[in-house]
Write a structure and sequence with these properties.
Strand content: 5-15%
Number of strands: 5
Strand order of the largest sheet: 1-2-3-4-5
Structural class: alpha+beta
CATH topology of the largest domain: DNA polymerase, domain 1
Shape: elongated
Oligomer: single chain
Order of helices and strands: EHEEEEHHHHHHH
Helix content: 40-55%
CATH class of the largest domain: Mainly Alpha
Largest sheet: 5 strands, mixed
Number of helices: 8
Number of domains: 2
Distance between the termini: 73 Å
């Protein structure tokens, strides 16, 4: 049950009759809960996630006779403002994120052709990142790599950025350990660092055909006519 805890609600909360304990979770301070045992003992608890552990961790803050509701909230606020850093070795590699993303999305919102193109761009431009944990990839690395790729082609640089953004947003949603992680692609978007792109029309201009063809994976190219 979730509600905004008040002194009156804490006092009137009834012990459960069909289980050993019950919880009422506060909607004001995330993670704060009132635990009521079958014997009527009431105490404040704080439930949160710890990097490296799949299940939430719950700790007792104190009984209601020793800790006021306001003090319990202040304890939780203090813990929220000083979150534990994410351990890099608990995060997935970029390669694993891509594999999981492809496995989850392919056939739904991701076609096999697009998945192949994603893999091609990742291996061509970020091969040295594939075995890195995604928390080891910093905003500076993203900005620098985007600029380096941009020296070869603006469209390719922007495409790699969008692929990384899709994978990292997926990772943040899919992995519990990354709930408090900020994807490093945010900086490039925040400083408006993408290269301008002319609006695509149905047909490619003559000057674009060669660039487009060269970016295609070999399996999508037409066989040479002899």
């Amino acid at each position: 049950m979730k509600t905004k805890l008040t002194v009156a609600k804490v006092a009137s909360a009834k012990p459960p009759t069909d289980k050993n304990q019950d919880f009422i979770w506060d909607t004001q301070a995330k993670g704060l809960g009132l635990r009521i045992t079958q014997n009527g003992v009431k105490s404040y608890v704080y439930q949160h996630r710890v990097p490296g552990k799949r299940s939430p961790v719950r700790e007792t803050l104190g009984g209601i006779n020793k800790l006021t509701l306001e003090d319990a909230r202040n304890k939780v606020y203090s813990k929220i403002l000083t979150p534990q850093p994410i351990e890099k070795n608990s995060a997935p590699t970029l390669q694993k994120v891509f594999d999981d993303y492809k496995g989850h999305k392919e056939g739904k919102t991701l076609s096999k052709t697009t998945a192949t193109q994603y893999e091609y761009f990742l291996k061509k431009y970020t091969k040295d990142w594939l075995e890195k944990t995604i928390t080891a990839i910093t905003p500076d690395m993203v900005v620098t790599r985007h600029a380096d790729i941009g020296n070869q082609g603006h469209y390719s640089a922007n495409a790699v950025y969008r692929i990384l953004r899709a994978l990292m947003n997926y990772a943040k949603a899919a992995y519990d350990d990354l709930e408090d992680w900020t994807p490093p692609v945010f900086r490039l978007a925040k400083i408006h660092g993408l290269y301008p792109e002319k609006r695509r029309q149905t047909l490619l201009r003559g000057s674009e055909i060669g660039h487009f063809y060269n970016e295609l994976p070999p399996k999508f190219r037409l066989p040479r006519v002899t």
